Amino acid sequence: MELIRGTPLLVQIFIVYFFIGTVLNLDRFTAGVAALAVFTGAYVAEIVRAGISSIHKGQMEAGRSLGMTSAQTMRYVILPQAFKRVLPPLAGQFINLIKDSSLVSVISITDLTKAGREVVSSTFSPFEVWFTVALLYLVLTGTLSFLVRRLEVKYARSN
Question: How far apart (Å, rounded) are the C-alpha atoms in residues 155 and 159?
């Protein structure tokens, strides 16, 4: 996990595409998705681990004393509390994933950024194109932020 979190995503995209992708005969799209998935997965795993660890040990002991199994206690006691705590950092990570997806354009995957470059090269209107691309990313991330805020409010009421 430290290896993934400690190296830049761009370098990981190159490694997956040029080395792992060559050995496993992966196309660009698969290599790009794999690199983004591994990178984001490392961060999400750490966020979830920290969320579960933040729940006091007494909660597990309370569930066990009520006759629940460890799995039941985790499912019905620990995870609902941890979910409320990890929702904001998870949302931030997924917003970063949307923005980081622009990096896959370096291996010739057509995403919003690559499409913007292609339009700039044919229209010679960089300001209009890049402001439009930025606005589209802002709409995507803003929508996700709005939905997460609504989830946070919903779960705050359930306390």
Answer: 7
Q: DSSP letter at 159?
A: -
* Residue for token pair 């354009």: 105
Q: What is the largest CA-CA distance in the chain?
A: 69
What predicted TM-score, i.e. pTM, was given to this entire model?
0.80
Segments of 12-147 assigned E as strands:
none
Query: The tokens 């920290």 sit on which residue?
Result: 50
CA distances from 152 to 9, 48, 57, 147, 156 (A): 29, 16, 24, 9, 6
Q: Each residue of 48-100: pLDDT tens digit?
A: 999 999 999 999 999 999 999 999 999 999 999 999 999 999 999 999 999 89
Report how far residue 13's alpha carbon sits from residue 28's, in angstroms, rounded to the nearest whole number. Answer: 10
Please name the residues in contact with 133: beta carbons below 8 A apart, sequence gap of 6 or more.
112, 113, 115, 116
Query: DSSP string of 134-152?
Result: HHHHHHHHHHHHHHHHHHH
